[in-house]
TrEMBL record:
It comes from the Bacteria. InterPro entries: CHAT_dom, EAD2. It comes from Candidatus Viridilinea halotolerans. Residues 98-370 form the CHAT domain. Residues 448-526 form the Effector-associated domain. Residues 396-428 are annotated as: Disordered. This is CHAT domain-containing protein. Pfam families: CHAT, EAD2.
Length: 531
């Protein structure tokens, strides 16, 4: 990865050494120097797997109607911790767990002082603070804790200062490995996209792909990256692609992950036939994807590690791949499809602005926290780095960095076509609909009323996410309004002038609100207009 020459932002390093009841933490910062504190697990070891399962359950938007069942023993564990409410996991579990973690972290006076001094110094410098968590490979239980969810007396720790830039948290695996050489100046990033068909409904896969390609097209038009997409995503096809070259700089995976028997897996397509899948273990992936600069894993449970002492930290997908890739962004719990799409959108946008990987991930986390009503997903993405240097990590040379100088990337429009290794659908592929419909004045007003009843169209920031499903040239032509009805009217009126844009708008609403009565009414109206 390209390292930028901007000043190094303030950081606080926490080095974990496991102990029988928790860890000894070594604290290092410019503000507080070095010190050591004791950390005791805030819950019994036997309850840790249940706690992770409970956090995972809340990632299902329809929980408790949808989600994993809990045994009587698990319910007892959660009740003892105050995390069970009648017949379900408490809704604010991530906050309660974050508060318990924070209390345990600062229970030792040395740890409290080290944390306070580092935060106050960063605030005085008006800079974001980066937390660097370093785990040895045997620190399985410690790495299983959701450190990103740390919550102080007022707010989530990574978001509590309310500054221009949110604080960042990065996980390191202590390995004596060097970074590979940076990209030559002027070279574009190349992304290899892996989006298996196995286990993902056609509608959702098409909607994700449309949103992803809209984001990447903006970067491509700035001359910043190129990409190709593998289809089908089988282990053999990926092996052939990596052998044939050229090697990609970024692997972007969107699909399903699983964690069982102490091992992490990603779901690939099977060579047996359509609809079949194959589980590819972390070990196989690590052997195949060595020397990749960044791996982005948008998969359920891709960052989760076992909460059992006999397991190695390298049984998790993200930790295993961080041993051979310089950086891995992955999910530590089941990730909502809407959250994965939004996180990807914001993260790549920030990287395109020339911001560091640490800052891009932090900004994407903050975006999830702001737009989700229940705030359940923002802490799920994790960032693992494999480097000896505690510096911002940049993918793009010549970016303007994190507001600290440098050059803006060129805005000259270029139109290189992405290379395809296999036949795929159009970049704007969406669920099959009538290709072009034009509405009359009364129909426009009726559609506006139906859209305003849909949750995804009731707030400006949510509408912005829906608009990502529309082709960029249409989206940029829309004159936004601060008043809800006027804004939706502008959106519908503009889309009505572009063939197929209304289909994309309806598909975007369907992606976020499918199954709601409002969305069902919208789809009934849309079907009638297509008959």
């Amino acid at each position: 990865m390209t390292q930028h020459n901007d000043p190094i932002p303030p950081s606080l390093t926490l080095r974990f050494t496991p102990t029988p009841d928790g860890a000894r933490i070594g604290w290092e910062s410019d503000a507080g120097g070095t010190c050591s504190s004791l950390f005791r697990l805030p819950m019994a070891r036997a309850a840790l797997p249940t706690l992770i399962k409970a956090l995972d359950a809340l990632q299902h938007p329809d929980y408790p109607r949808v989600g994993p069942p809990f045994s009587p023993e698990e319910v007892q564990h959660l009740s003892d911790l105050g995390f069970w409410d009648g017949r379900r996991v408490v809704a604010e579990l991530h906050r309660l767990v974050g508060q318990q973690l924070y209390a345990a972290l600062v229970a030792d006076r040395e740890g409290e002082l080290a944390l306070r001094l580092a935060r106050e110094a960063a605030r005085a410098q008006r800079q974001a603070l980066t937390y660097l968590l370093r785990f040895p490979p045997e620190a399985v239980e410690l790495a299983a804790l959701p450190w990103e969810a740390l919550w102080d007396a007022r707010q989530a720790l990574l978001l509590s200062r309310g500054g221009r830039q949110p604080d960042a948290l990065v996980r390191y695996i202590d390995l004596n490995e060097a970074l590979s050489p940076p990209l030559p100046v002027g070279q574009k990033l190349h992304i290899l996209a892996l989006a298996p068909q196995a286990g993902i409904p056609t509608q959702i896969r098409a909607a994700e792909r449309a949103a992803r390609h809209a984001s990447w097209t903006a970067l491509r038009d700035q001359g910043l990256l190129t990409w190709d997409e593998l289809a089908p995503v089988t282990a053999r096809a990926l092996d052939d692609r990596m052998r044939a070259g050229p090697p990609p700089d970024v692997i972007h995976y969107y699909g399903h992950g699983s964690y069982s028997d102490g091992q992490g897996y990603l779901v690939f397509d099977s060579e047996i036939g359509a609809g079949q899948h194959e589980l590819v273990s972390a070990g196989r992936l690590a052997a195949l994807l060595g020397e990749i600069r960044l791996i982005m894993l948008f998969a359920c449970q891709s960052a989760m590690v076992a909460a059992a002492p006999q397991q190695s930290l390298f049984t998790g997908i993200a930790p295993a791949l961080s041993a051979v890739s310089e950086a891995v962004v992955a999910m530590q719990l089941t990730v909502r499809i809407t959250a994965a799409t939004r996180f990807s959108e914001v993260c790549y946008r920030e990287l395109a602005r020339g911001r560091s990987l640490q800052t891009a991930v932090a900004e994407a986390r903050r975006s999830l926290y702001v737009i989700e009503q229940d705030g359940a997903s923002w802490y799920v993405p994790t960032l693992y780095l494999r480097t000896r240097e505690q510096r911002p990590v940049y993918l793009l040379a010549g970016g303007h960095g994190d507001g600290q100088g440098g050059q803006e990337p060129s805005l000259a429009r270029k139109n290189p076509e992405p290379h395809r290794l296999a036949a795929t659908d159009s970049a704007s592929a969406l669920p099959p609909q009538v290709s072009a419909r034009h509405l009359g004045r009364e129909e426009v007003q009726e559609l506006v009323d139906l859209l305003l009843a849909c949750p995804a169209m009731q707030q400006s920031n949510r509408r912005a996410s829906v608009l990502e499903f529309i082709e960029p040239q249409v989206r940029h032509a829309i004159e936004r309004d601060t008043q809800n009805r006027n804004d939706v009217l502008q959106i519908v009126t503009t889309c009505n002038d572009y063939p197929g844009a209304l289909d994309e708008l309806v598909a975007g609403v369907r992606f976020f609100d499918q199954g709601t009565f409002a969305c069902q009414a919208l789809e009934a109206f849309w079907r009638q207009r297509g008959e």
